[in-house]
Each structure stands twice: as C-alpha cells, then as structure tokens.
Design brief:
Length: about 190
C-alpha cells in the first residue's frame, strides 16, 4: 500500500474514533487552543491587506450588515455599504464601513453597537447546532470556526464606540431604558 494511502487511512481511523471525538468535544483546553491558533493565523495575515481581507470577509459582512440593518430600522439612513478594505490615515486596516446621513441621539447607540446582536445569534446557533447536527470531528471544527467568526465580529470597533457615545442625551436615554429593563425583568 502506498505511504500516503496508509497515512490517510490511519488519519481517518483516528478521526472516526468515537472516543477521540468525545475527548476533543469535551476538552475545553483544546477548544481554547484551537481558537487561539485561529486568531494567531488571522493576525499573521495582517502583513498583507488583501490576505487579511480574504480571511476577514465573512466576519466583516456580518458586522457591517448588522450596522446597515439596525441603521435602516432606526432611521439612521444608511448611505453606503463598503466591504472593500483600505488603510486609514494611521496605517490601520479598515475592512468595511457603513455610512449614515441621519445619526441622532436616539439612533446612534443602536446603529453603532448593532454588531452586538451577533452574540444572541451565536448563542442560538450554539443551541441549534448541538441539537440538530450529528457531531463529527470535522463538524466540531467547523462549529468552532463559525462561532469564532460570529463572536469576534460581534465586538464593536473603537469607531463604533465613538459614534455610539457621541450623543450624551442618547447615552442617558439608553442608560435609563437599560436600568428600567433590568429592574422590571428582575
């Protein structure tokens, strides 16, 4: 038998072993190592704008789509949706952006912090995935990759925070709404 075929057979036997799958899925340490390796790989691509864009495009689409949809819903009036990467004036990469023409005190926070909506989506995906997908080692690796993309891109950028907190009246309004919701629901 050819060496490559034998190697592939051994790898397939290892990956298909139920004990190996159980060990990998139940091992939080391995999951953390895998996520850190993914992030290191992602950061290693930052030396090239286009390689970085290629790696970041799925998350950028999710992040910017949340801005666009919430801006549309809250009357921030999106004017542009850009997924073409570029360098800003400080040498940092900007993977995408959404422009608005009607950012006000009532819609700045929801429009700017819209990517946070990805967190409940990621949580729902977590619940759905393990209830509906037959877990294999490959499926589990795909799940980790997908959740890493969703959760990492749920974090608003520094520009998002600047826009969100640029209207003090809006900050007070949403702080009051948040406190009221917490008191009412608890």
């Amino acid at each position: 038998m050819d060496f490559v075929q034998l190697l592939l057979l051994k790898i397939n036997q290892f990956v298909s072993n139920p004990q190996v799958l159980e060990w990998v899925v139940n091992n939080r340490f391995l999951m953390i190592v895998f996520v850190i390796v993914l992030l290191k790989f992602k950061y290693a691509t930052y030396s090239s704008l286009w390689l970085s864009a290629l790696i970041n495009i799925p998350g950028t689409v999710l992040h910017e789509t949340m801005h666009f949809l919430v801006g549309l819903f809250t009357n921030a009036r999106p004017t542009s949706f850009d997924l073409i990467p570029r360098k800003d004036g400080f040498g940092n990469y900007v993977m995408g952006s959404v422009g608005f023409r009607n950012v006000t005190s009532y819609n700045a926070i929801p429009s700017a912090l819209a990517p946070l909506i990805l967190l409940p989506i990621g949580y729902w995906l977590n619940m759905w995935y393990f209830a509906n997908v037959n877990i294999s080692l490959l499926n589990y690796v795909f799940y980790i990759l997908l959740q890493t993309i969703i959760i990492e891109n749920a974090v608003p950028s520094s520009t998002d925070f600047k826009v969100a907190f640029s209207y003090p009246i809006g900050v007070v309004l949403y702080a009051f709404i948040t406190v009221f919701a917490i008191v009412y629901w608890l």
